[in-house]
Write a structure and sequence with these properties.
Distance between the termini: 95 Å
CATH topology of the largest domain: Alpha-Beta Plaits
Strand content: 15-25%
Number of helices: 10
Radius of gyration: 30 Å
CATH architecture of the largest domain: 2-Layer Sandwich
Helix content: 40-55%
Structural class: alpha+beta
CATH class of the largest domain: Alpha Beta
Number of domains: 3
Shape: elongated
Largest sheet: 5 strands, antiparallel
Length: about 290
Amino acid sequence: MPYDIQPLWQQTLTFTADYKLLTSAVIVVLFLVAQRLTLKVIRYRSRRKGEDRRHTLNLLEQISNGCLFVLLIMVWSSEIQSLAISIAAFMVAIVIAMREFIQCFLGFIYYLGAKPFRVGDWVQMNQAVGEVVEMDWAKTALLEVDPDTYSYTGKHVYVPNSQLVTQSVRNLNFLRRYNLHAFSITCEPQVNPYSLLPAFIARAKAHCEFYRDVAERYKGLIERHLDVEFIHIDPTIGVSTNEMAHLVITVELFCPTAEAHDLQQKISADWMNLWHRALAELKEGREPELIEA
């Protein structure tokens, strides 16, 4: 004879209705224990496989927290309904007072739908640049990155999710390995810079040879993803003047993020060597000649 679970279900509902506080405590404890165990198992497996599952863990945690919140609302639905009726006259004031929180929640809903980034990506939100380390319904936590050196500062920046719908968000994830690095060198207009460019360009290219093959593959990956060609592997060098009539040598190169600072120092040193050699020739009374590579 099959066992009828209907009486047991009715007893459970009766117990839940009579002891809502105890039921809520039991649900919270069991839910959190199950959540922690599940996340621990996923972290353990991801470490063994060497995979980055931070996005999955964060998303799973937020979804489970939402489910817990819904369960608690179901348990206390009658009380919440009575409370909602009693404060109906103050609803407008409550909405105004909680406007920022509502905007943050809507920003989180926008993130779930549009997915402009994920945990582990580099992003720029307003003036904050960093790696997304955590996200919930109210805020996004960033591990700050110095936009000039592309190195971690060790600071955490917490950005309200309301900025996801009110401010532009830039996904800088491709800068984690390679970036379009640009810098300038300013000199007195004492030497014709175009006589130094052939040797300078050759030296700059020589500094970039060691990563050319990898850069070509990474360039192709980025341009296929964005469906536009805008990256040049060889250094791009330009000559201009500033408002003080000084010469400005601008160098742009696509290089590994970790090597950007060292490459800038080496290329700058090459220009200074060529520049001071030309100045020395001028002091000796000789016109600087075109310096070949």
